[in-house]
Every structure is written in structure tokens, then in C-alpha cells.
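Hi all, a correction to my earlier message: I attached the wrong file for Amino acid permease/ SLC12A domain-containing protein. Here's the right sequence:
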Amino acid sequence: MSIKNEKQTLEVTSVSDIESLSVRNKVFGYEERLASTLNSRHIGMITLVGVFGTGLFLSSGGSLSTAGPVGVLLCYFFIGLVVLASQMCATETACLMPVTFSYIKHSNHFISQSFGFAVGWTNIYAAIMPSELSAVAVIMTYWSSLNPAVWVAVFGIVVVATNCYKIRWYGEIEFFFGCLKILLVLGLILIGLIIDLGGVPGQDRIGFRYWKEGAFNWKYFDSDTGRFIAFWKTLNSVVYSYGGVQGIALLAGEVEYPRRAIHRAAKRVFARCFLMYMSTIFVLTLIVSSKDPLIASSTGNAAGSPFVVAIRRAGIKVLPHIINGVVLTSALSATNLGVLQSSRALFALASIGQAPKIFLKTNRKGMPYYALLVSVIFLPLAFMSASHAASTVFSWFQSITSSHLLVNWITISLNHIRMSKAMKVQGYTREDLPYSFPGTTYASWFSLFFSTLLLLTGGFTNFIHGKFYFPSFFSAYFIIPLGIVLGIFWGIVKKSFLIKPEDVDLKTLFDDVKERPEPEYPKLKGWQWLTLLWA
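and the right structure:
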């Protein structure tokens, strides 16, 4: 009886079924090599850890000094809108095609192999730049006079060890760090309000005193032109602060029920990031003067943090050390994320034939160890921070990271535009998508326009008033010619520069949505609403 049934089953498996399975394996097949043990709680916190880092705790002082209190608030708000638009696009596309390092594979699937190849390798280039590890070394100078190279070596080993364990353990470590950051941010907001309202003994009420010094600061020219230059320069700096938000779909291949997890995490993470950022920066403008010389030139550690400046002046002694400690965990988490991104990018490229197949090899824990090895080889670049100009080195790495983030936002927007075009040509509607947001069609063009504009003007201050500085210019723009050269090279090799909308394989993706349904999350009840803070 069983043998007969097996024969019948084999007969039913037609040639078309086999071809369909082959196509599906080409799109999703290698994802099964990774361990699918994460959920929305983990990817949400991994993303938060990448966002709440040195950009908020250290670089925000320089942004306030450059743009002024109202100017810096507008900068964070506007970049938040660009990120929201990008996030909506990334979520819709990733929920239809949930794969590891999604926007690399999305580019190959919806735009062209040449574009995907360029995006993939520029992502690896940016991810291997150890900007946050160099920040770790500088942060430690707040407590120790040891050469920063010592700390680069010590924490470099910690980062490598963390990435060698199961992805589930990595997720739990980052979840813990994420909770610490949320508590720190909420604590900073509360302490800031207490300082501002005169709640510290012996301190006057500040109110909006520092806003009266000038809502906007100027740069190079004491005029409206100078104020606009300061505003636009700060916009480019704030991009770095929002880095990591697009990482929600980074680990789609290692998440159980990826579609629902990505959709849920995307909504919650952006809301948390945006509200916490705006609240924190608003409080910061109340308790620190934008004219304060201590925030104008960052030391790279807690001593230059605008929050520490305000807390010290309020006579609170212990908190600066706590802030430096959490900032240290922020930089470590971001370094971990960089290694994770570059290793998964190599895995994603190898799965589509754009990197050697050796990077597809995983151990029994589901960790792509050859890809990880290549990713950590470049960590010693952080030894550059051992020089006397450590904070300058960090600013170079920061500029590289900002350019890379903008390229990713551009890519995400283009992926969504091309997906929408293919859906229209092939007769699919937005109702066919597993998850969608209202207005995303317009959001993709909004994000594309402003992300491109910010990328092209990332180093514009080098052309003003004879202020040309080659390292700044190089770090702001090198990623553009690098991407163009890589794209042309692969386009010539593969003779493929653009996929026509009618040739985009949407059927496999929509069939997969139907064949692998995912259960909905149960509705929150009672005290379960508190889990919105972390889950």
C-alpha cells in the first residue's frame, strides 16, 4: 500500500513541479543553511542597538553646535521622515522576498545583476570599515591612559568571539544591550527634564534660555546663507545617527516566520527610534547651549558627550561614568553588527554567484565561518585610532558610514520602485502583497530623491571658502565611483544591465507567500502592552 502511494506521489510530481521547485530554490534555497532561531524581539533589538549608538550619545553635541537648537531638531525630524519612507519600502519588499541581506538580493531580482553586484560589494566595503571599534578605543580613554591600541586588540577579540557563537546567543546578547540603551535614553530624558526645570538642588530653572541665544547657528557666513549651510551640513551628519534602521531585514534568513517578524519589527522599531530621538534631542537643546565650546569639538568619549557636559554642570558625579559605560556597549554592539553585516553580505552574494561559493559554507550552528573570517580580517584597521588624531580617524570612518547608509536607502527605494513597476506590468495589485503600508508608492520616490541629494552633497563643505580637505572629500564620495566601476564591470561580465519589468520573476515570490503561510501574532491584552517597549 505504501509503495503504491509512493509511486503515485512520484507520478504526480510533474516536470513543471520540478522546474517550479528549482526556481524557488534559486531564490530561497541557500537560506536553509542558516539557523532560523531569531524572532521579531531579537531583530527589533538588534536594529535598536545599531541605531542608538555613538551618533546619539557623542555626535549629537557637534550637530547641536553646528545647527543650533531649532536647526538640529528639524534635521533629526527631516532625516526621520526619509528613514520612515525607506523603512516602508524595505518592509514591503522584504515581506514579499524575505532573504538574507535582503536589499542586495532584491537588487539582483528586481533591477539587474550588475546593480546588485555593486550594492553588495560596496556594502562589504563599508561594513568592514571598523568605525565603531575605533570609537571603542577612544571611549576607553575616559577611564584609562593606556594606548588605544590595547583596547582595539582586547575588544576586537571580544567581537570575534561573540560572532562565533550561535546566532540565537548573539540575538540574546544584543537584546540585553538594547534594553540597557532604552533605559539610558529614558533616563537621560528624565534627568534632562529635572535639570531644565530646576529640580537639582542649587541649580536655577533653565527653561528655554538656550533657545533665546539663537534658534539657528551659522557656518562660514553670518547670514541666511551661512545658516542654511550649517543646517545642510548637520543633515548629512544626522544620517549617521539613523544608521542601522534598515538592518531589520538583514537577518531574514535566520528568523522564524520572517514575513510577520519583519513587518512587526519595522513598525515598532521606527516608532521607538523616532520618538526617542526627537525627545532626547529636544531635551538636549534645553540643557546645553549650542554656543558651548565643550560640545563643538568632540573628544570621542563621554567627556565630549553633550549629556555629560550638562550633567557635570548640574553637579551630578556618578552618571558620566554610567553614560560612558553604556556608550561603550553601544560601540561594541555596532561593531558586532558591522561584522555580522559583512559576513551575511558575503553569504548573500555567494548564494547568487557574485562571490566565491566557499562563503556559503556554514558550521553545524548555522554560522557562515569563511565569510566571518574575511569580515574580521579588517578589524585591525581600527589600530589607526591609536594615533594622536584618534577622533579625526573616527570622523573619517563616520563619513564613510554615512555615504554607505545613503547608498542603501537609494537602493531600497529603487528596489521598491522596480518591484511596483513589475507588479503593474504583470497584473498584480498591492492587495496581493503579504504586508503593505498606505502611500509607499510615493514614499519610495521621496526617499530616493532626498537620499540621492544628500549623497551628492555629503562633502559640499570642501568646496566652500577654500576649506578643501582631501580625507573628508574621499570618505564622502569614494563609494560613488566604486559602485559605478563595480556595476559596469559585472554588467560587462554578465551582459546584463537592466531587467525588464515583464521579466522579473514575481510568480515564484507570490507562490511562496501562498505555500508558506505564517500565523498572525495574537492581540496584546492587559499588561502585555508593556512589551511594546522591547518586543
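Sorry for the mix-up. The chain is about 65% helix and 0% strand.
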